[in-house]
Amino acid sequence: MVPLELVGVRVEVPANTPMVLLREQEGRHRLLPIYIGSPEASSIHYALEGVEPPRPLTHDLFLAALEALGASVSQIIVTEMKDRTFYAEVHMTSEHGDKIISSRPSDAIALAVRCGAPLFASDELMDAQGQEPPAEPEEDAAEIIDEFKDFLEDLNPEDFA
Which residues cross the membrane (predicted)? Predict the structure, then answer.
């Protein structure tokens, strides 16, 4: 299992498609972008921002029902990708034992944000779908500065004539 952190919800341009971005907490810090629906993106965003709706949204209602039944979400695992569709599991615990429910990753993440449950991905999924993070800006800046210094060293006053 690979521990993940939620980087945030973004809108992919130019398609204008919402996506959730997860990042490996340790090691290579690979990224796992998952395209999601607009309602789920809004639900995750509201929870991240701490917005309290006047009435419970679907994910709030689900957590309230679990609590009323004496259950809680213990962890979320993004398990696999089949036919360009991601799958996840909601792991729950109660006095009656542990249960696992299949879920869309977006719904599972919306629950995790609300209740503080940890996020994970299977090792196989991260190996197959994890993306290397982009180069750090400092590295790019240092390279650009070195190139500019080389340019200045080769510069002659005649070059401006």
Answer: none
The pLDDT of residue 137 is above 70: no
Q: Is the peptide bond prior to 39 cis by the omega test (within 30 degrees of 0)? A: no
Going by their DSSP bridges, the two strands 31-35 and 17-24 should be labelled as: antiparallel
Where in the chain are the domains?
Answer: 2-133
At 79 the pLDDT is 97
Q: CATH code for 2-133?
A: 3.10.690.10
What is the rounded distance in angstroms from the CA atom of residue 71 to the CA atom of residue 80?
25
The DSSP letter of residue 96 is: T
What is the DSSP pairing of strand 2-12 with strand 85-94? Answer: unpaired
Whether the model clears a pTM of 0.90, i.e. scores above it, the answer is no
**Phi/psi of residue 88, nearest 5 degrees:** -140, 165
Query: Per the structure block, which two tokens stand in for 50?
Result: 């701490």
